[in-house]
# Entry
Amino acid sequence: MKRIYLDYAATTPLDPRVADAMYEIQKHIGNPNSVHHEGQIMRGFIDEARRNVAQIFDRAEQGVVFVSSATAANNFVLQGVVKRFKKLYAHITPEIIISAVEHASIYETARMLEREKEIVLTILPVDAQGNISIQELREKISERTALISVQWVNNETGIIQNIKEIAKIVASHKEKNQSVYPFFHTDAVQGIGHLLMQDCKGADFITISAHKIYGPTGIGVLLMPQDPLIDPILYGGGQENGWWSGTESADRIIGCAKALVEATNNQEEQMHHYATMRSYAKEKLQTEVTGISFYGNEENVSSHVISFRIPQVLRPDIALDLEGIAVSSGAACSQQSVTPSRVLQAMGVSATYAQESIRVSFGKQTTKKEIDVLVEAIVKVQKRSVA
# Structure
């Protein structure tokens, strides 16, 4: 059986151009923190990668921090901002505002900080289409709000939040109150490479993951503002300008930067491909799958993801895996859990309906023929379930 992979939102294959760039680095030896010639050659490779990422996002080079993953970046920004705020304002318990549909690395970190009484946590609900209320966010910001973290594109549904508008609201609040707080952070992992880069540039902090854009695993980026007011949460040798200690993985950093460059090049062409695949898939599914329903407003969903419910088919991701097709029931980070999706339930979906739902995500390699096979398999699985 030739398997079909339709779970690109979980991870993507390594782009050959990225692999080639990493291979060239692997020919060299040297710790980039060593003062000798070999070490400084490696340092030069990392410096160039940092410049390339900084140029893409119009950031200063010192605002590009390479970390071990997007989860690490998200933990760093939440915990680090809170640590610094508490040093500056010891008499105030800082507030963090997040949405109810954030990635687990934001949601669980925020809940942990709340449990340990480090913060006051405000969780913004979403409507049936998965969107927060911009007006409610505006009303919730207070003098003790240290950080607002809202995901750009949801990893389970593909639903897009209005990051540009949130950035404007936060900037306006700062100007009106002559304050550096709150900072605005967005987990941009699912948006990079699928939406126009400039739409997220207004955020203070931006989280990026390489393996979602045909780069290597084990490397992420946190983009920081010029005056970040954040404390490290990892201590040691003071690498990454003191922000993230530990010997840098030069080949992964070069691979990450190369993947970002390639994600920027021909972006409109790639977005057109995703949109074509999604439109084709939705039309086929609507025509052939009984009672199917889709999540999200069509105009407000990233084209690389389609999320839907297949009535009377419990855990369709497992059923389709047996048919040779890799899809997901939700976030890959919690894929082993049988708990219904927190994200879908936040949108008002029942626990039963959530367990009848799947996420299909497209990549650069996805073809219409693969989608045809997917739809045929879904029809087969559904008929077997209701027989």
Summary: The CA atoms of residues 268 and 276 lie 12 Å apart.
